[in-house]
């Protein structure tokens, strides 16, 4: 299926000899005003705009599958065997599925791929000149921009326009859930994430936060509707610009949320999360249960609004010891995997327990399609740890992408090739061991992306 995007309408043409009726849809009108809960009714929040459909009275599910297969094959080298048994179970419209689904196929691991897909943690943001220019133009801080769907869509798509990455990722923050639970988050600059009024104990927690039983999809639509509005707008703009790649949604994991909400910081108060677990065991269990529930509903709503893949970030895995991780964090991660795979079995689910590689073996047994490895993981053992139960993601050093100290396009190509040689090109999503920090060279980032594609394709073809 070939998709042509125009400014005011999206027209779908089927590459086939059968007769189709072509319909058009006027695209969403957007403004640069912040999202307001009161500005949209519950019904509008629950009904995302649907993409244009091909009206084919004679068409069948088998025909739709064949058209999807042809679209995928148009991106594959000659001779590649690509099996497309069906659309994802939650989709009814073939146009919702990206033409370039390389990363989805690599994540699910049901077939071999023609090259290794690649995207980057924090691929949108400070390292891009266009991001910094846009941020100055709108005059808003990072957190302020997250309330403006137009800003979110623009920042999401900037790296996809610049680089040949295989997916877009929602431009957002791991602590939007904390804000949805009435816990203020600030980023004053230079000192990391700040929570001015953290939870100080069980009584404070129970007074300020809702019960887990009251958190459902309607709660998420009300408190995080601006994120869903952004997802829908991103999908609209991707169609308009002819970008037919997966959109990744994401969430922080429960332990990471708890760590920040009780006043933890990577720069100070590093032990406060562990102290909370020790001093308030019942309240900790209650809080983690609440956070697990909202993460599940938040990620589910992202899927319903149009994301194709999901990434779960246990970003503060290094702030809890292994025993406590297994006792407190692991059950949450297991419940999330079980519930999300029950609801959306065909949506790739990726997990990153940063600084907690001891968890990777267990995570690979829970239903996660992809386990992310950080920069401290021994690549020679990474495959043995997951033992074929899951694919891998990672773990390139972003320091290699900072110009200077001998870092060049040639060194990037060399080190990218070394990563591929160690991890293998199949059932791998090439990424970083941690997020881009802002000082990376766009030239070197582009070289990394291109090197992954070119070297992996050479390896696969033999």
From TrEMBL:
Which residues does the annotated region (Disordered) include? 28-98
Q: Does the keyword DNA-binding apply?
A: no
State the GO CC annotations: cytosol
For this protein, what reaction is catalysed? uroporphyrinogen III + 4 H(+) = coproporphyrinogen III + 4 CO2; uroporphyrinogen I + 4 H(+) = coproporphyrinogen I + 4 CO2
Low complexity: compositionally biased ranges: 28-47
- The leader peptide range reads 1-19
Q: Which Pfam families match?
A: URO-D
Q: Name one GO biological process term.
A: porphyrin-containing compound biosynthetic process
| InterPro entries according to UniProt | UROD/MetE-like_sf, Uroporphyrinogen_deCOase
Domain of life, per lineage? Eukaryota
Domain Uroporphyrinogen decarboxylase (URO-D), chain residue ranges per copy: 102-454
Q: Which SUPFAM superfamilies match?
A: UROD/MetE-like (SSF51726)
Q: Where in the cell is it found?
A: Cytoplasm, Cytosol
Fetch the PANTHER family from UniProt.
Answer: METHYLTETRAHYDROFOLATE:HOMOCYSTEINE METHYLTRANSFERASE RELATED, UROPORPHYRINOGEN DECARBOXYLASE
Subunit note: Homodimer.
Q: What does this protein do?
A: Catalyzes the sequential decarboxylation of the four acetate side chains of uroporphyrinogen to form coproporphyrinogen and participates in the fifth step in the heme biosynthetic pathway. Isomer I or isomer III of uroporphyrinogen may serve as substrate, but only coproporphyrinogen III can ultimately be converted to heme. In vitro also decarboxylates pentacarboxylate porphyrinogen I.
Q: What is this protein called?
A: Uroporphyrinogen decarboxylase
